[in-house]
């Protein structure tokens, strides 16, 4: 089942880059940009994360908390954050439970090969935990503009 605007955002608990528990409900009362990306340190994911980093002050001014999610380990996330000076937490979803809850783990195709992977998707969630928007066609180098439009 695909999540859509108007749906309740599924709560989850996983760990952040420091191994601390992190839940969606920790951010109740705040607007959230929850972005799912395939892998730390790959070109598209780096471009997307750095675009959010470069516009982070503007996102915060608009009241947004930014949370990134991928299947990488907390250790990988920590290195990614340090390398690119990312100012927001990254969620380690090694068991893919957060991906499953949001429908972002699925069939992908590259070079004629079909495989399972992260479907790059961003969920914009309001203060009440409702999904305001689902961005499925992410422009990695200009992602903030898609969110703030």
UniProtKB/TrEMBL annotation:
GO terms for molecular function: thioredoxin-dependent peroxiredoxin activity. Gene3D superfamilies: Glutaredoxin (3.40.30.10). Its EC number is 1.11.1.24. Keywords: Antioxidant, Disulfide bond, Oxidoreductase, Peroxidase, Redox-active center. SUPFAM superfamilies: Thioredoxin-like (SSF52833). Pfam families: AhpC-TSA. It is an enzyme of class 1 (oxidoreductase). The keyword Oxidoreductase applies. The keyword Isomerase does not apply. Belongs to the peroxiredoxin family. BCP/PrxQ subfamily. PANTHER family: AHPC_TSA FAMILY PROTEIN (PTHR42801:SF4), THIOREDOXIN-DEPENDENT PEROXIDE REDUCTASE (PTHR42801). This is thioredoxin-dependent peroxiredoxin.
């Amino acid at each position: 089942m695909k999540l859509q605007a108007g749906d309740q955002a599924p709560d989850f608990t996983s760990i952040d880059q420091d191994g601390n528990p992190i839940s969606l409900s920790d951010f109740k009362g705040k607007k959230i940009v929850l972005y799912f990306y395939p892998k730390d340190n790959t070109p598209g994911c780096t471009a997307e994360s750095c675009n959010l980093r470069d516009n982070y002050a503007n996102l915060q001014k608009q009241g947004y908390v930014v949370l990134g999610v991928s299947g990488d380990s907390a250790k990988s996330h920590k290195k990614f954050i340090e390398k690119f000076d990312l100012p927001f937490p990254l969620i380690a979803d090694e068991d893919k439970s957060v991906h499953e809850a949001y429908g972002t783990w699925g069939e992908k195709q590259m070079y004629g090969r079909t495989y399972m992977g992260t479907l790059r998707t961003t969920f914009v969630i309001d203060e009440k935990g409702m999904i305001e928007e689902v961005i499925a066609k992410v422009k990695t180098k200009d992602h903030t503009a898609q969110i703030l439009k």
